[in-house]
Amino acid sequence: MTEKKLPEIRVRIAPSPTGFFHIGTARTALFNWLFAKHNNGKFILRIEDTDIERSEKKYEEDILESLKWLGLKWDGELYRQSERLDIYEKYLKILLDSGKAYYCACTKEELEKEKSEMQAGGQVPRYSGKCRDLNIPPEKAQVIRFKMPKNLIIKFSDIIRGEITFDTSLIGDIAIAKNLKTALYNFAVVVDDYEMKISHVIRGEDHIANTPKQIALQEALAFPRSQYAHLPLILSPDRAKLSKRFAAVSVADYRKNGYLPEALINFIALLGWHSKTDKEIFNIDDLIKEFELERVQKAGAVFNIEKLNWLNSQYIKNSDNKRIKEILADIFEEKLPLDKINDKLINLSKDRMNKLSEFMGINDFFFELPDYPSELLIWKDIPANKISDNLKSVLGEFKNFEPENFNKTDLERMIMPVADKKGRGETLWPLRVALSGKDKSPNPFEILEVLGEKESMKRIEIALKKLKDLNG
Ligand SMILES: [Zn+2]
Predict the structure, then answer these.
(1) Where are the alpha helices (DSSP H) in 221-283?
(2) Alpha carbon 295 to its chain's center
(3) What are phi and psi of 435, to 5 degrees?
(4) Cα 122 to middle of ligand 1, angstroms
(5) CA quadruple 358, 360, 361, 365: dihedral positive or negative?
(6) The domain defined by 251-362 carries CATH number 1.10.10.920
(7) Domain span(s) for CATH 1.10.10.350 in the chain
(8) How many beta carbons lie within 10 A of that of residue 355, not counting itself?
(9) Residue 73 bears catalytic tag
(10) pLDDT of 65-105, one tens digit each?
(11) Which CATH fold topology does 374-471 show?
């Protein structure tokens, strides 16, 4: 049981196309990818689609699309297990011919009965080994089983968790194929990892129990052993396994909600890994440079959506407007009023969003003035005609502006003296309401700049009419 070292670093992710690409799988993909990049290795993508009933093409497309969006490019060809059945057959025959595997004729019902008897007797349920020496012919078989070596302690050194041992007598003879053409999970993985020369298997902690089975199969086939690293689970804030109740679980959902891929990458990198410093913002090059499996924790990693939102807001602030506009178009499609999306509006919005999906909600009043109650224009107990006079004074200042220099700095410089003379609250409050129709919004000078002179005048005229009606 020597651990042979393979020369080249080669890692893989092996998602099943049975659901949308999960954030946990994205984390596993990222850690594999970073490990490969850090060590000048290769990152292999293998689609584990042998479960024909549950696998769907749309999920495979989602896997590929999500990996591309995250920037996790795989090396070389894309493998699909469904296209590799002959390879599995070859190795199944080797095990059968050498007497290390056998046909088992036990039916589901018999196995169920055996299982409940074992559980009733306080034993760990496993296959009894009934057909091991019965020489069942293939035509009577239900499955092909692997002769698990008896009473063997399988030991492996996990890069993250240290030494782990399993007693094979608690595992029993596992099913490795339904028939020669239908290999089952653990067997296909062992064959593929060998054929693809995988040096390090980096995967979720939920796979630990598979590892001794896979090691036993590797030894039976005289394959070299990969090194293992089992990543901690991703937990909800209540420390249960991450579920949809707490956060979106598919990468596609994060994309649709306006998270930037680099923010999501930064966030999931910190789900179980930490750098030597307290730094929290990492671009991909920093991550490649600093990532080491030795700095992955054993304990579960808590998923903190506020942290993701904060990271995303930082990345939004630093993104260029052209890209933001493209992503907005992608999220809102035809609902986005493209003709009204300019640099001024994007600049103003950048500081006010955790995610780009908030864009329409925070900016709705720019696209269309909402109907608002006339009373909203009134500041404290100031009479409507006084408010009206103040707005007219502001409007009077517009005469000093050419449309092209209608900008917030100059507007503020010209309008603030008016507000100081007339009273700041009773001037700026109705101005802001007139422009936005809302009690909360950015400051009036910023809104003026984005709306432009013509639209701003139109909205102030509407407010003046409302005030007139209030006066009766
Ligand atoms: Zn049997």
Answers:
(1) 251-256, 261-269
(2) 21
(3) -80, -35
(4) 21
(5) positive
(6) no
(7) 374-471
(8) 19
(9) no
(10) 999 999 999 999 999 999 999 999 999 999 999 999 999 99
(11) Arc Repressor Mutant, subunit A (1.10.10)
Query: Where are the alpha helices (H) located in 44-150, listed in sequence order?
Result: 57-70, 85-97, 108-120
Output the pLDDT for position 2.
55
What confidence score (pLDDT) does residue 5 get? 55
Look up residue 374 and give its two tokens: 């006339």
CB-proximal residues (5 Å) to ion ligand 1: 104, 106, 130-131
How much distance in Å is there from the Cα of 186 to the middle of ligand 1? 19
Residue 244, SS3 per DSSP: coil
- Angstrom distance (rounded) from CA 214 to CA 8: 21
Least confidently predicted of 87-91, 231-235, 404-408, 447-451: 404-408
C-alpha span between 433 and 417 (Å, rounded): 20
Extract the tokens encoding 354.
């955790």
pTM of the predicted model as reported, rounded to 2 decimal places: 0.91
Q: Nearest Cα to 188, choosing from 175, 169, 205, 172?
A: 175
CA distance 138 to 1: 32
Catalytic residue among 155, 181, 241, 244: 244
**Nearest alpha carbon to residue 124 among 169, 187, 160:** 169
- Cα–Cα distance between 350 and 317 in angstroms, integer? 5
The pair of three-digit structure tokens given for residue 207, joined into one six-digit string: 């796979």
User: 385 is written with which tokens?
Assistant: 């005609």
Residues of the chain with CATH 1.10.1160.10: 251-362
Measuring CA to CA, which residue among 26, 32, 27 is closest to residue 12?
32
Ligand 1 centre distance from Cα of residue 346 (Å): 67
**CB 427 within 8 Å of CB 414:** no
Concatenated DSSP letters for 202-213? EEEGGGTTHHHH
Return the amino acid letter for 458: K
Residues 6+ apart with CB under 8 A from 360: 332, 335, 336
Q: Is the pLDDT of residue 4 over 70?
A: no
CA distance 349 to 362: 8
CA of 108 to the centre of ligand 1 (A): 10
Residue with tokens 């901690």: 232
**C-beta atoms surrounding 396 within 10 Å:** 10
**pLDDT reading at 247 higher than 80:** no
Mapped onto helix, strand or coil, the DSSP state of residue 46 is strand
Q: Give residue 445's identity as a one-letter amino acid code.
A: F
pLDDT tens by residue, 421-440: 999 999 999 999 999 999 99
